[in-house]
Amino acid sequence: MSIEIRMVNVHKAFRGGRDQILKGVDLTFPKGELTYLLGPSGTGKSVSLKLILGLLKPDQGEVWVGDKEISRLNGKELYEHRMCFGMLFQNSALFDDMTIFENVAFPLREHTKLGESEIKQKVEKALSILDMPGPYDKFPNEISGGMKKRVALARAIIRQPSVLLYDEPTTGLDPVTRGTVDELIEKLKREFSLTSLVVSHDIPSALLLADRIVFLYQGHTVFSGKPKDFRNADHPAIQAFLKAEYRSVEAMQAV
After folding, report:
1. What is the reported pLDDT for 249?
2. pLDDT score for 35
3. Cis ω for the linkage preceding 30 (within 30 of 0)
């Protein structure tokens, strides 16, 4: 079951208040929608992710995940809160000494009391949803970057989370692998209708896949809306972002 996420007048600073990262951010990530959180480096995208997970607390304001305000949760409640999330990290974050099967089974073995036959059934189902071919006894260093993303996503959905978070899922990838990741994000959106949040610099993917785009700039939300409206947004930072992407595409086409 998907849930809504809200950030209400959120402020966050570091270094004793000298580095103001978020300056009164109000955001809603609608239930069941795929939102891309864009913006220049250092503008608060990853900080927002950590606030939603409860890894950081706001200096001011509230972060709501469903009916829970995160800053009010204690240690045990925070642990239970984080169980409703699945997450894909930039580098996939697979365990090198575990096989494909063991990586995906890890959350079930750590956090449930399921028997091995049921674990096997769930792992194979998750991997099949993501079109990951067997056998599953290979190690991460024996598979391609695209396959690593499939395994990491299978691990992220294995416990049927309410929210799926992606941290820079296509950064540093070649065009083919980036396309594969886009297809996987779209497939999970279609299959599960989860509340999904993608922290990214990848404008083409955002325009292609997002239900909603949010753009952070200098600690403020300067855009929150549909992809078609993002293309025409007149904020200078957004136009600079779009122009830089178009120049990059033109340079690739000229090679």
Report:
1. 47
2. 96
3. no
Residue 195 β-bridge partners: 163
Looking from the CA of 254 toward its CB, the CA atoms found within 13 Å total 6
Q: How does pLDDT run across 89-126, given as a tens digit for each residue? A: 888 899 999 999 999 999 999 988 999 999 999 999 99
For 195-219, the pLDDT digits (tens) are 999 999 889 899 999 999 999 999 9
**3-class DSSP state of 188:** helix
Would strands 195-199 and 212-217 be described as parallel, antiparallel, or unpaired?
unpaired
Residue 221, number of CB atoms within 10 A of its CB = 19
Choose among 133, 86, 93: nearest CA to 107: 86
Determine the Cα–Cα distance for residues 116 and 120; give it in Å rounded to an integer: 6
pTM summary value? 0.89
Using the structure block, give the residue that is written with the tokens 């674990």.
119
Largest Cα–Cα distance of the chain, in whole Å?
Answer: 56
Distance CA 220, CA 44 (A): 9
